[in-house]
Design a protein that fits this description.
This protein has 149 residues and is mainly alpha-helical. It has 7 helices and no strands.
Length: 149
């Protein structure tokens, strides 16, 4: 029987491999993988993996859902911390350079939301539409300022 540490590492490796190569969202499996990491896994452990997949997944769906996972981690981190800043830096890079317009838009939407939060506006809901139908992240609050940092 493997110890918990090696089992944890194996689960993380499998999820990363899956998000790096998933070509489409089928039965919300990719969403579940990214949500597991962003919402239910230790953020310090999941963050590097989600940053890698957000920047390097072969297909759009893996990158979009990894961004969703990073957004979920942001909710749990102190805004002044290095991890929070590292995720926002990654999202700024993705918002300018990802090859997919929808991935760039998702990253921009999250950045807009966090700029609004920094100004004291309520967080609101962001990932509420079906990913398979339209891609991830377009329902982030539209009334947030568009200034860039």
């Amino acid at each position: 029987m493997p110890d918990a540490s090696s089992l944890t590492k194996e689960v993380l490796r499998l999820v990363e491999d899956y998000l790096m190569a998933v070509p489409r969202e089928t039965a919300r499996a990719a969403w579940m993988a990214a949500d597991m990491l962003g919402e239910h896994w230790d953020g310090e452990e999941a963050m590097p993996l989600l940053i890698r997949t957000a920047q390097g997944a072969r297909y759009r769906v893996g990158r979009e859902l990894s961004i969703m996972g990073l957004d979920n981690i942001l909710d749990k981190l102190p805004a002044e911390g290095d991890a929070h800043k590292n995720i926002l830096k990654t999202l700024r890079k993705i918002s300018r350079s990802d090859r997919s317009a929808s991935v760039r838009a998702d990253a921009k939407d999250i950045l807009k939301t966090w700029r609004a939060v920094a100004r004291g506006e309520p967080r609101g809901f962001s990932w509420i539409r079906p990913v398979a139908a339209t891609g991830a992240g377009e329902d982030v609050a539209a009334a947030v300022s568009t200034t860039t940092t």
